[in-house]
TrEMBL record:
Membrane topology summary: Multi-pass membrane protein
Taxonomic lineage of the native organism: Bacteria, Bacillati, Actinomycetota, Acidimicrobiia, Acidimicrobiales
Protein localization: Cell membrane
Name of the protein described by the UniProt record: Putative niacin/nicotinamide transporter NaiP
Regions annotated as coiled coil: none
Transmembrane segments: 52-75, 87-110, 117-135, 141-164, 184-204, 210-229, 271-292, 304-322, 426-444
Superkingdom of the organism of origin: Bacteria
Major facilitator superfamily (MFS) profile domain location: 52-448
Record keywords, A-Z: Membrane, Transmembrane, Transmembrane helix
Recorded name of the encoding gene: naiP1
Record GO cellular component, one term: plasma membrane
GO MF annotation: an example: carboxylic acid transmembrane transporter activity
Amino acid sequence: MYMYFGADASDIRTQSHSGATVADTRFVQRLVVSTLRLMLMWKRSATRASRAIPIAGAGIVLGSYDLAVISVALAPIRTQWHLSSGVVASLGTVTLLGMLIGSLTAGFLADRIGRRAIILWDVLLFMASAVMAAFSPDFALLAVARLATGVAVGIDFAVVFPFVTDAATSNNNGSSNKGRSMAWILFGANFGTLAAYGVGGMVLADVGALGWRVLLGSSVLLALPLLLFRSRLIEAPSWSELTPLTLRQLRRRATVALKHERLGAQALATLLYQLTDQGVGLVLPLLLVTILETSASSGALDAVLVKVVTIPASLVAVLLIDRVSRRRLQVTGFLGRAVPLCLLGFALLYNIHLSPLIIGLLLAAGYFFGAAGPDKTTVISPSEYAAPEIRATSQGLSQAAGRLGGILGVTGYAILVTLAGPGAGILLFGVACLLGAVISLAALPRLNPIITVSGDESADS
C-alpha cells in the first residue's frame, strides 16, 4: 500500500509508479477474495441461521461502503461545483437524516409485516439511489439521492439484526453464540469502509475530478449479488409463529421499553457513540486533508491507514463479546476512544505541533477502542434483550437515536470548525465519548443479553 501522511497525490504518482500499481492490484485482489469467501459461505452453511449471517453481513458491508464513499467524494464535489465546506458537508447530514427515517419506519414495519420483504426492497432502494447520485446534474438532486441512500442504510441496520436473532432462535442455537454471530456481521462493516477509502483514493487519483460519480455509482455492483442472495431467504419461523402487534400496540410497547427498560439508556449511549463514529467517519478524509494540507486522494488513502486498525479491534470484540459483559466492553471502548480524541483536540486547538505520525496514531487508537467495544454492543444489545414481538421496533429506535447522534456530530463539527478550527470539532467527539462511558456505567448496571431459548425470553443471569 502506498499511503504517506502529508504526501500529495502528485508525489505518490511519481514515487515508484510500478510499485503503486502492484499495491493497487493486490488491494483489489484481496477485496475480491474476501467477497468470494463471503459468497461461498452461503453454499457451505448447513442451517438457515448460519446462512443469514453472511447475507446480513453483506448488507452491512454495502451500507458501510455507501456511508464512507460520500466522505471521499466531498472534496472533489466541492471543487467541481464551487461549494463552501459547510454546504458540501450537508451531504453527510442529509444521508444521516435518511438513515434516521429508515430506522424509525423499518423497525415498526418489520415487526408488523415481517423482515424478509423489507430487506429485499431495501436493496432495490440502494441501487436506485446509487444510480441517481452518479448521474446527478446538480447539488439538489445529489442531496435527494443521498437522502434515499440514507433511508436504505437505516432500514438495513434496523432490520438485519432482528432477522438474524430470529433465525438463530428458530434454529435453537441457544444464547452462547448469538452475540458473536452479530459481531461477525459488524466485522464486515470495516471492510466496507476500508474499501470505500481505498478504492476512492485510487479512483480520484486516476480518474480525476469526475471520479466521485464513479464512486457513488459503484454501489450498484455490490448490491446485485446481495439482491440475489436475499431473494432466497425465508422468514424466520420464530417470527412467523408470533401474532403481529398493531402499530398502536407497537408504539405503546416501545414507549414502555424506552421509559422503564434498558432501551432508553442504551439508545442514549448509541446516540453518543454514533455522534463520534459517524461524525469522524464522514469527515475523516476531509479532516486529514485540512490538518495535513494534502490532496483529496491522499486524504482518502491516509484514512485507510487510520481505519485499518478496526479489523484487529473487531476481532477482539468477536472473541470477547460472549465472554465479557456488554457493559464492560462498552465502557472500556468509550474511555479508550475519548482519551486520544481529547488529546488530539486539545493539541490542535492550542496549536501544539504534532507530527503526521502522532496524529495518525491518536486517530487510530480512537478507532481501535471504539471498534472493540461500543461499535458492537450498542448495535447488538437491543436485538438481544427485546421481546420478540418488538425486537425490530427496539432496534429501529436505538438505531434512529444513533443517526440523530450522527447528525449532531457532523453538524456540530462543521459549526465548531468554522468557529475555532478542527481541534474544537475533534474535542466534541472526545467529550461525547466521556459522556457515553458515564451513562453506560451508571444507567446500565448489567448489560448482558436477554436471549430467547426455544422461543421464551429469559432474564439475566
